[in-house]
Amino acid sequence: MSRTLLIAGAAVCALSLAACNKKTETEGAATPAEQAMTPDANPAATVPTPSDETAAPTFVEKAAMSDMFEISAAKLALTRASNQQVKKFAQEMIDAHTATTNDLTKAIGESGQSLTPPAALNKDLQDKLDDLTKADAKDFDKAYMDGQVDAHQSALNLLQRYAEDGDVAAIKAFAAATAPKVQKHLDLAKTLRDGLK
Question: Whole-structure pTM over 0.85, yes or no?
Answer without folding.
Answer: no
